[in-house]
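User: Predict structure, ligand zinc ion.
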Amino acid sequence: MTIDQFLAAFPTDELGREMFAMAERLYPVCRSITGEGLRETLREVGRRIDLTMHEVPTGSRVFDWTVPKEWNIRDAWIARLDGTRVVEFRNSSLHVVNYSVPVRGVFSLSELRPHLHSIPDRPDWIPYRTSYYAPDWGFCLTHRQLEALREDRYDVCIDSSLEDGNLTYGECFVPGRGEEEVLVSCHACHPSLCNDNLSGLSLVTMIGEILPKLELRYGYRLLFVPGTIGSITWLARNVQATARIRHGLVAACLGDSGPLHYKRSRRGDAEIDRAVALMLRGKEGSSVESFSPYGYDERQYCSPGFNLAVGSLTRTPHGGYPEYHTSADNLDLIRPDRLADSLRAYLEVFAILESNATFRNNNPMCEPQLGRRGLYRAVGGLQDVKSAEMAMLWVLNLSDERHSLLDIAERSGLGFDSISAAASLLEAHGLLERVIGGDAFNWRADGPEPA
Ligand code: ZN
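Assistant: Predicted complex:
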């Protein structure tokens, strides 16, 4: 089965439900850029797809960075001296500043205050804070909880550890017929946050469940990495392998009710940038923005030394919704139908990449006679006839070895699927010859240099 055939019978409800259920299961886990929460999350992914878990020791140099100590947390609280707990880690993994050093002691409220974080404008939400690369500790709480704290002495405990250990990341490779690869990367390091983390994680897992059942031209390399340090670590260990990456997407924020949004790769006009823009054409509210060196792991994939053709396809982008990086980015913010719609969009992009090719018209002197070959009025029902013929005329006219099917779809305004179907039909009748694309696909000038 091809991706197109899979899309034709896309089981929206079932896939949406499954992705949402995965987010539900993983929601309570306290993840971080290292540690058991991250491992537990990757093990859950590994129960569904063929995932290799890599462990990279603390202290490993990865370009300009060093793999940090491994952080683990068992429990944490702020309690009154009578034992009543006023902040309780077990109620939300966001209550502790991620990567807090261990703390145990009695503190006055004024001593404690510099370590307490809330959002005054959103008094019922807990913020998400981290202190990965500077030793610190703290609690995040709702502003109501903070306001309710009286001048008093408090028993404070963060039962965490920061020790030599490993950074863990997961990698799944789905082979295709050719050597070239599509990279799909998501971050797996945020604690109880749904849209910014679990939506991407469950969508990429689902891609890993679907693709092995399909016929593929490209190999698909799926990465589940802790943000920033994880993609840097993967790149440092796979410099050579990046030469095979032809296209890529960073997956995040895919379950909210906003429209689809695409951030272009640093190259700006790579095939992936054009394929996504074409997929989004006509989708209500969708938008495309230029690359900027801020956001998710595209920052690393698009750093100048790699300059991979990797963009980021999201719904509402990071920071663009009020619940971002707060406890309100919870299971109520994401919806099964939105997850399914995002997954469909990813597969539609892959379908374009899989079928894109460049042809030569074997009858370039005037139009070939389609009627004689049974191609005139040959396709589909009456209403499809016109667009199928238009697609054939466009493909014949622009197939001069210099225009790909993507070029033709862009220029004609017709859907990629009808352009692609027309090319297949014309190729089958010997009117077109494939010059670039498909199994014989080779390196092109705008691809990454083989290392
Ligand atoms: Zn985030």
